Amino acid sequence: MSGVTKGAFTGALLLAACTFAGTAGAESVTLSSAPLIQIGSTDVGSGNVVANADGSFTLAGTQSGGTLDPTWLLEWNLTVDYDPFINGSLSVTNLSATARNFTLAIGLPVAAFTPSLYGGSIIATVMDLNGDLSASVGPSTAAGAGPGIYQGMIDNSPVLNLFGMVLSCTSAAAGCTATGSDTDGLPGATIPGPGVASSIGTVLKFNLSAGDKVAFNTNFTVVPVSEVPLPPSAWLLLAALGALGLIARQRNVLGPLNITATPVAA
Fold first, then answer.
1. Cα dist from 168 to 77, 125, 128, 179, 248, whole Å
2. Which of 81, 91, 129, 260 is the most exposed place for a label (fewest CB within 10 A)?
3. Cα–Cα distance between 14 and 201 in angstroms, integer?
């Protein structure tokens, strides 16, 4: 990970074990390869992993910075599939007295395939938890951060950038919230992409106001082109649209955003 400015917070947090306990009464689940979650420098505990009927796995848990850095709290509920996709919710609470930069990354080892189609989405909700009548989340101010909060990754290289704005709320009473969303290439994976050698992932780099909480719902889907049986004429159209989309993303890396704010009545 790249260096950060003063007040920034990065590091590595790893789901290192491949065998996890399921819900009460369920047998333990063994994953073929463990997903990676990164934030700070604290190893995540085993958490809770459940095997779903469709072959995917749901991972849920809570982790704090502990005594070494008691300034953040992470909660996650993710569904991963080695076909592959990563979908679910993550929330971070900034327990410090100042705005902080956070880097939150999820990586999923997958079997190689080429070429690919991909797409992603993010919904962010920021909440005033400390009662100071405001809350905000925006792209990280750290050196090397992307133009948006969200990056979709193929083999550790960013291919998709979303949510390049500051989301904020203010209110005359404590507890305001604001929600925004951004998406590209969904539903269905529609953006032509490179081959996948070993992994896909999602990286969220953001700056969160002091004492407040942000909840993210994210999706990143990458599929082999062979999984989409289209006629030749459709592929020509898809290639043309992909070229136009590339031009559009080069001009404006970030897509349109949908934003709503919900202040608490006085």
1. 24, 9, 10, 9, 27
2. 260
3. 14
φ/ψ (deg, to 5) at 129? -100, -25
pLDDT per position as a tens digit, 142-154 = 988 889 999 999 9
